[in-house]
Amino acid sequence: MPLNKEIQPGDNDELTRERLQATFDTQQMAAALWGSDLARKRRELAKKVDKLTVLHDSKDMSFMTREEKLSENARKVVQMFAHVADIVEDPSDDAEMFHLSSNAIGHEGHPFGVHFVMFIPALKAQADDEQREKWLMPALGLQLIGTYAQTELGHGTNLRALETMATFDKATDEFVIHTPTVTALKWWPGSLGKSSNHAVVSANLIIDGKSYGHHNFMVQIRDENTHKPLKGITVGDIGPKMAYNASDNGFLGFDHHRIPRRNMLMRHAKVDKNGVYTKPPHAKIGYSAMVHVRSVMIGHQGMFLGSASTIAIRYSLVRRQGEIKEGSGEVKILDYQTQQHRLFPQLARAYVFMFAGKEVRELYQKVLSDMEKGETTLLADLHALTSGLKSVVTHLCVAGMEQCRMACGGHGYSRASGIPEIWGVAVGGCTYEGENMVMLLQLARYLMKAVKETKKGKSLGRLVDYLLLPQDRHSLIGRVPQGEYGPHLAAFEHIARRQIFKVADELTKLQDKGMSKEIAWQKKAVELQRAARLHTRFYLAACFHRKVQSVVDGRIREALADLYHLHLNYELLDMVNYALEDAYLKADQVDFIREDMYRLLETIRPNAISLVDAFEFSDRELRSVLGRRDGHVYENLYKWAKESELNRADVLPYFDKYLKPMMLAARQRSNI
Ligand SMILES: CCCCCCCCCCCCCCC/C=C/C(=O)SCCNC(=O)CCNC(=O)[C@H](O)C(C)(C)COP(=O)(O)OP(=O)(O)OC[C@H]1O[C@@H](n2cnc3c(N)ncnc32)[C@H](O)[C@@H]1OP(=O)(O)O
Ligand SMILES: Cc1cc2nc3c(=O)[nH]c(=O)nc-3n(C[C@H](O)[C@H](O)[C@H](O)COP(=O)(O)OP(=O)(O)OC[C@H]3O[C@@H](n4cnc5c(N)ncnc54)[C@H](O)[C@@H]3O)c2cc1C
């Protein structure tokens, strides 16, 4: 059977020649990336969206005001739901729905931005059966629009300091929701400002003057017909952001607003009509919606980096600039080693982030079904894993996307490239769902506990089993036959384990000297977050290894293995100081890693376009002139620029108003 190489009539010849070099079938690679069923569904879905003009952008969003963006995406999201049954096979499949939303709406946000990713997951995990009937069904049926209102103007990270109050009034069987200070205003919730009419609100539960910490409450905030804020509620938009401006992130305040007692989400924690409080089976079970989003973010961030890599690699095969050998003509910029070194490691990261995203979702589903039965043993493991992955992946994604942008030269800076918007959305991920540094420290707490268990000869969980293994003194990289990468993965393991034990010992020493646990933690916080990063980067490398091992088709496995080996080399060099500190690696081994990395850049080069084609992002989804599948970049850049609102007239009013009078006056002065 001939290999599928994604060649279509009308394609730029340069790209066709590139695609013909592929050593593998792109559809099979897509199946390895997404799973064969989802890859097929994605392909079919994109074709259907292409035919449904009501789902198409009415013009490029770059040329719209915020209000136009909100209105445009509200229009499309409504059309999307109207046609959903004709487009997707299973509307309850988040992955299929995310793909539909990417194609039809893009990533700038829409009125249901938080409804599906937090509001519904919070209801699924925290509402009891009766409450699910009352809100989950209408929420799924689009009878209401919900958001998740937790962060306040004064506090986002430190949830214990949230100020919004939910005081139980036994006499009326109600909670009184109140915003006592300006810093207690809810601030940031997506789609809150102008779109939502319901919110899951985090507030301190107060019964008979005693605080039980924050819990989640269902609050209707707007009238379902007039959409006006209900009495006692102040709500609005917080203003423009770096990106994601089709989302109306909002503020929300309550003035002694009353809700029925049964509006507290009561699957786990409960308050009865006499004000008797029942504790949940796990203190942090109410944080499940956050864990859900952290788990989805990993794969999504991989897709963002995959999109940026696709744009930059395709463009690098169309763009010619300079000669390598004088007189032999200008080369494609992807033929420069520096360009390959800039882009291929980002491509490899995108692949592994998507693989890790899949693994972590599987663990999340398991924990969710355990929680349904009141079983919470794996919650701490999941929290630790998602906290680390969320932080490392978002950080590396935005660093990688910035490389992709710069690799496109001047045109990368134009919004026509599509990179600025996805970069702006992705970089938000470093902050939302837990600021990265804070989440790394959460993982570090877990790792320090794991060390204690290890010292007793036990393992805290599967993810930290490797702490039980003895440390090797020297790496075998370059000392085993060429093509064996076991020692590379062992090096990730070594540096993670060493840093974890090192910081644990340092903490112990400080405490032995009489320092409190908390102050010792502060003194070692930078080292602790390093340990968390190294642990996570080891997890990612090991995940890549598991994926390559699981692939049956030889051609796919070989192409994936090249990316995996490049990943091992590149990331090790990025962290090499840790391996040099204890002379685990010698200088000649570092040179070996570098040389092997350069070799791999050359090996990957002929497959580059097919490795990005395998993501199967449609042009509609990429929204990039530079990343067009057919490679016809220049004529379309010109067409795009002509759409600029500044080109609506040859002379704009500001010229007559300001510049012309100034120049006339200057001329008159010079004539005097
Ligand atoms: C949106 C989805 C996909 C994105 C891509 C799609 C494309 C579109 C892109 C744009 C979408 C934009 C949507 C954005 C939506 C964003 C929403 C939000 O941001 S919602 C708000 C999120 N807020 C946070 O994440 C707050 C961060 N802070 C915390 O989580 C906590 O305060 C803390 C964990 C830092 C500390 O909690 P606290 O209760 O104060 O901790 P204690 O010190 O009391 O206890 C520590 C103890 O608890 C354990 N713990 C903490 N959390 C959990 C948990 N979730 N599960 C299990 N255990 C937990 C922790 O490990 C400690 O355990 P210990 O044994 O004591 O060590
Ligand atoms: C695009 C976007 C969408 C959002 N959507 C929502 C939403 O739908 N619902 C919602 O409720 N919220 C939402 N948020 C809010 C978001 O969850 C918070 O901004 C986030 O959790 C960080 O909290 P913060 O803003 O208080 O940061 P801060 O905690 O003030 O962070 C500032 C700095 O302080 C440091 N810091 C803070 N605490 C510690 C500590 N203990 N140890 C060491 N360093 C520390 C941080 O590392 C950081 O460098 C959104 C935010 C964004 C950007």
TrEMBL record:
Subcellular location as annotated: Peroxisome
Gene3D superfamilies (UniProt xref): Acyl-CoA dehydrogenase/oxidase, N-terminal domain (1.10.540.10), Butyryl-CoA Dehydrogenase, subunit A, domain 2 (2.40.110.10), Butyryl-CoA Dehydrogenase, subunit A, domain 3 (1.20.140.10)
Location of the Acyl-CoA oxidase C-terminal domain: 489-663
Acyl-coenzyme A oxidase N-terminal domain span: 25-145
Acyl-CoA oxidase C-alpha1 domain span: 287-448
Pathway the protein acts in: Lipid metabolism; peroxisomal fatty acid beta-oxidation
Alphabetical UniProt keywords: ATP-binding, FAD, Fatty acid metabolism, Flavoprotein, Lipid metabolism, Nucleotide-binding, Oxidoreductase, Peroxisome
GO molecular function: acyl-CoA oxidase activity; ATP binding; FAD binding; fatty acid binding
A GO cellular-component term linked to this record: peroxisome
Biological process (GO), any one: fatty acid beta-oxidation using acyl-CoA oxidase
Residues involved in FAD binding: T151, G190
Required co-factors: FAD
Active site location: E433
Keyword match Membrane: no
Family: Belongs to the acyl-CoA oxidase family.
Protein name, entry field: Acyl-coenzyme A oxidase
Originating organism: Diploscapter pachys
